[in-house]
Backbone:
């Protein structure tokens, strides 16, 4: 049993998904309550997504370290919001991504923030799973700044100093409607779309194993057609593209330039709905070096790690601020068997405390 097990179970039971603003607020208030009293609580909200920044009085403009935690989760069946413990594993939606880390970070903040010779903040957001623009992105647009940022996403106590960029795009194909019995009289937009997707996947093939390369996930194919006996005239595909900073097809390009590139490769119309840059933190920087040493102090090797998934660190990276991912162990995030490894929570707590006490900006 860890000090966080019961509270974590309560937090997991809150279905804090993007389409439930009341539950987002409830999760946020629970964690703010865990921080206790005596701190300034700055509240933000945009597009129905609440967030908060906590810090000791007088430290608001000089936050040398920020702990960043998101409290939203991806949708799941109701049973995944019923936490279940099996030995050292606690299962449930958000257990690993990243409600356990949020509670541990909050506990550390409550105990240590007021004792540090520098300003520290706790940033709690509720929209990371849908892009982060209304949480971390909004707070930075409002002037929030930090010297070094630790994001509690899952990492098994490794220090993630590099992650891929993200592109959400749509491909659209148009054809000509006709009776399905006479397909030669029409042009099937779904077939045209599939051919365009294949051309894109030829350019960016799905790796057979883990690779630091650009990947394309076809997330959805839709058509407004509602009849079996009609050739569809319009079809659309949703794409989730992850790219390393070494890919010139995406890195440093605007949405319009990326859309033009996708259109050229696929032969279809393309629209880019979101484009987030890769993230990188200097491995020789004081924050990264200090956090690796703190991991070693609790028996972990303090390895560096590259992540394929994007996180809110990209918003800080765009402003020239080093941000890393550093979180506890577990597995199965976004899946039906998501769990946090409870044995990693106390070492994670102690590593964060050791880092804060030793760090000198």
Residues:
């Amino acid at each position: 049993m860890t000090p966080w097990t019961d509270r974590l179970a309560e937090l997991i039971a809150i279905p804090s998904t993007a389409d439930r603003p009341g539950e987002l607020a409830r999760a946020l208030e629970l964690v703010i309550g865990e921080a206790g009293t005596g701190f300034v609580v700055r509240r933000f909200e945009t597009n129905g997504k609440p967030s908060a920044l906590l810090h000791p009085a007088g430290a608001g403009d000089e936050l040398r370290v920020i702990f960043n935690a998101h409290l939203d989760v991806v949708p799941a069946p109701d049973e995944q919001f019923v936490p279940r413990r099996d030995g050292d594993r606690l299962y449930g939606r958000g257990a690993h991504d990243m409600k356990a880390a949020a509670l541990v970070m909050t506990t550390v903040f409550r105990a240590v923030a007021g004792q540090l010779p520098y300003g520290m903040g706790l940033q709690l957001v509720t929209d990371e799973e849908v892009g982060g623009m209304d949480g971390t992105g909004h707070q930075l647009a409002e002037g929030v700044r930090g010297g070094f940022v630790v994001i509690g996403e899952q990492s098994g106590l490794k220090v993630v100093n590099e992650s891929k960029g993200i592109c959400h795009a749509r491909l659209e194909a148009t054809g000509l409607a006709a009776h399905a019995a006479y397909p030669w009289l029409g042009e099937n937009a779904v077939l045209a779309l599939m051919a365009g997707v294949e051309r894109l996947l030829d350019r960016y093939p799905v790796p057979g194993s883990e690779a630091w390369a650009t990947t394309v996930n076809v997330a959805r194919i839709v058509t407004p057609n509602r009849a079996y006996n009609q050739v569809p005239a319009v079809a659309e595909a949703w794409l989730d593209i992850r790219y390393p900073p070494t890919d010139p097809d995406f890195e440093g390009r605007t949405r319009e330039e990326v859309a033009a590139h996708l259109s050229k490769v696929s032969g279809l119309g393309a629209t880019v709905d979101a484009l987030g840059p890769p993230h990188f933190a200097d491995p020789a920087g004081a924050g990264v070096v200090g956090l690796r040493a703190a991991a070693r102090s609790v028996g972990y090797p303090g390895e560096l790690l590259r992540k394929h998934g994007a996180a809110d660190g990209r918003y800080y990276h765009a402003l020239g601020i080093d941000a890393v991912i550093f979180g506890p162990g577990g597995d199965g995030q976004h899946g039906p068997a998501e769990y946090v490894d409870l044995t990693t929570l106390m070492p994670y707590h102690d590593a964060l405390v050791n880092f804060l006490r030793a760090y000198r900006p």
